[in-house]
Amino acid sequence: MSRSAASSPYLSLTDADQEAMLEAIGVSSIEDLFREIPEGVRFRGELELEPALPEAELVAHLEELAARNVHTGQELSFLGAGIYDHYVPAIVDAILARGEFLTAYTPYQPEMSQGVLQAIFEYQTVICELTGMDVSNASGYDGTTVAADACFVAKHATGRSKVVLCETLNPQVRQVVKTYAPGFGLEVVEVPHHDGTTDPDELRQAADEAACIIFQQPNFFGCLEPAPELAAAANDAEALPVAHVDPVSLGLLEAPGHYGCALAIGEGQGAGNYQSCGGPHYGFIAMRSDYVRRMPGRIVGETTDLAGERGYVLTLQTREQHIRREKATSNITTNQTLLALAGLVHLSWLGPQGLQEVGETCMALADHAKQQLGLPLLFPDKATFKEFSIRVGRPAEEAIRAARERGVHPGYALKRDYAGMEDALLVCVTEKKTPRDIERLAEVLTEVTG
Amino acid sequence: MKLIFEKSKQGRRAAVVPKPDLPVPDVPEELRRRQLPRLPELAEPEIVRHFTALADRTFGVDTGFYPLGSCTMKHNPRVNERVVALPGFRDLHPLQEEDGSQGALELMWRLQEILAEVCGLHAVSLQPAAGSQGELTGLMLMRAYFADRGEAEQRTTVITADTAHGTNPASVTMAGYQLRKVETDDRGNLDLDDLRAKVDENTAGLMLTNPSTLGLFDEHIQEVAAIFHDAGALLYYDGANLNAVCGISRPGDMGFDIVHINLHKTFSQPHGGGGPGGGPIAVRDMLEPFLPVPAVVRDGERFRLDYDRPKSIGKVRGYCGPFGVFVRSYAFIRAYGPALRRMSEVAVLNANYMLARLKDTFELPFDRLCMHEFVLSARALKREHGITALDVAKRLMDYRFHPPTIYFPLIVPEALMIEPTETEAKETLDAFCEAMLEIAHDAATNPKLLKDAPHHRPVRRLDEVKAAKRAVVRYRFDDHPDLAGEPSQGEALEAHKGA
């Protein structure tokens, strides 16, 4: 146990420091510090870990691992299905690299953390503006767990335990809700789609005695749901309508709060976060003020200091686990603040006009792609946003494999989640694509489906 | 300072969005947005200045010492930020075909193996998004395990310590269990008599942090494990304090069956102002079939995501976990190698050194060697001078230190929970101890100095009661209330502040 203090990275003690400190404590060795650990549970020997890597070798090792992935800069990719290749502006990287944001924690001590508190307050405002809701929290884990959170809110708000999920809701989201359901005491019911969207009358039936219904707009197939009618159907049954929305669509599509939804949730990744193999990103959850006492997680509120100056603090904390313990609205502590900050920076960079224009560009390119590909649409009568589903006339995985050999990833095989959709491909077109890219996709799909 | 919305001016903008020469289809009338969201309207220079000003008003580990107990605020190596930004990681789609994500899958598989070794357990799932979700996932595993054994109806309670993090009881409720609390004995260990009285055939398991939130290693951990295992119950290890014991004592060897690991604490994922985190769980072999999907498995030289796990509890978050967190933590561990033990040794050395310097001045509820953190009480200062733990915390800010966690654990009145971590220099530890000693002195001679603290932060002490009462939780533009126009109550809520 007499390794030199300097033998490991990221440590600041010298051998002389260590000696002086052991003496001040009154122990003779490092080993002696652990004398209260029962002999039988002490670990003898050395952890079986690979040898330490100096920084340069560490970088080389990770570069080698990274090189064995095919990222969206290497192949022309039309993969979406919930995680999107939208452009992330340089200022997001620059601001997130500020050590003050990167290395702070939850702002328990507000006088130390006014900057991050104000940023969260601004983030909450942006989410409320996007969704048309009254109150947002400081972020949830991702677009799946906020759906489980919404169910928990709805259960307590209505006293009902059935939750209704549209089949057109991202399968990942539905799976997570089902995992949470037994502990929450929830019964999960799914409503099938008809030609790619949900039928409001069928939803109204299913919503009877339900705590909430969750639909996705645009839905997983890329189709636009009759969202106001779905919200009305839920409200008719006194079930809370919950919309799972794409933030990038909300410059063009109506805000859920403006057509009767009680809660709006979603995956924030497309606004300000890289794809990063699926995380970390941020989930958002916003709701009408009626339910604020059931909101999970952190909320920042405005106040004043002793001198009457404006400031920000974590507030309504009696909802939270560190005070309410087993009666808390959620167990969440660590959230996704840094990723939510990226969202705030990104949306500030876009502004209202920029958000609308990104939506228009996605929609124009996607519509162009539908026409250029010359393949049958899975749901030809439905309006879409940035994704759409086509039939490739052979098992989709085969078409994907063949297209990737030509340097193009054409999209997501829907049969991974939906029975009977053997030849269906979900194609995503973001504003980063060009008409030339779409031409190339059309060429390749013609080759691999012909 | 002004909110970004107050700096906004209609028509100003930063982004130039590509506009291909293509028609934009109409959004169906009934779905079209009628009024654009009031996002900020600024040019790029002002956006950069705004967020730089906010950064200036935020204190991180990069700014200075941050001994926030239970949160493990260690240095975040910058090489980890470099490697996580490699395009092969950063721009990888989570649904990429497996032959296009072999590097990512191998990294996850390697991290699973490392965490299993550190925990002394058999299998790892990287899926949970944070420690709290790891707790919930672990309790879901208990449910699934007992359901599989036909004991679901019988086993309805989960036991926690009275020193537990608030997340433990909250997770117990979310998982659909009943909570029973066990007391702490006069050495800071779990009270074995109380424990024996509360463990029975209805017990599903124990959730325990070891070392505890008092920073003390439970001296009877083997007896504790035997009590639960003899009753057919499971032991869950809250890994919040794993930084104390890497390579020194492994949770699996202590008798725990399920462990969550806070990657943002022990393995240096930056805390990001509140997150992200990562909360992988490690389990004993009999629990492996119930782990969340997907699992990362190795077939010879190939790696793949395995969803074919019939007994799995299901998915707990989207896609394949918070991958960027895995990259940083993997890089952190590879920089140490087997010397990871040294990390924990120094964390414990630093804490004991500070404890030795402070324990004659502040009350120490349990006079033992500590592990990586320790808890002092400001009770005497309160009794003698009316100075609370909150006052001590606020005054520390004037020395440019982040305060420790205060008012937690709940069983210690006026608690100050101090966790220095392994990355601090002795000079920093000394400077903090000297500040604490000076504050204790000032409590007697100049209490007003402490009551009015902080004096050198961008704001003075904030009115938390007003914040909760008024609940202004978003900017309201033209209708925004002027809270400053009203007299401040000057009351500070002495809520529990800490992890």
Keywords:
heterodimer, A: 450 residues, alpha/beta, three-stranded antiparallel beta sheet, 36% helix, 14% strand, globular, B: 499 residues, seven-stranded mixed beta sheet, 16 helices, disordered C terminus
Q: Name the helicity range of chain A.
A: 25-40%
Number of E-type strands of chain B: 12
For the CA atoms, what is the radius of gyration of chain A?
25 Å
Q: What is the 3D shape of chain B?
A: globular
Q: Supply the helix-strand structural class of chain A.
A: alpha/beta
Amino- and carboxy-terminal Cα gap of chain B: 28 Å
Widest sheet: strand ordering of chain A:
2-8-7-6-5-3-4
Q: Secondary-structure element order of chain B, as H and E?
A: HHHHEHEHEHEHEHEEEEHHEHHEEHHH
Which class best fits the helix and strand makeup of chain B? alpha/beta
- Tell me the radius of gyration of chain B: 25 Å
If interface size is counted as residues with C-beta under 8 Å from the partner's C-beta, which chains form the largest one? A-B, 210 and 216 residues
- Average pLDDT metric of chain A: 96
How many helical stretches of chain B?
16
Residue windows where pLDDT falls under 50 for at least 5 positions of chain A: none
- Rounded mean pLDDT of chain B is 96
**Multimeric organization:** heterodimer
Largest sheet of chain A: 7 strands, mixed
Q: What is the strand tally of chain A?
A: 14
Measured between the Cα atoms of the first and last residue of chain A, the distance is 69 Å
Point out poorly predicted stretches of chain B: 487-499
Query: What is the H/E order of chain A?
Result: HHEHHHEHEHEHEHEEEEEHHEHEEEH
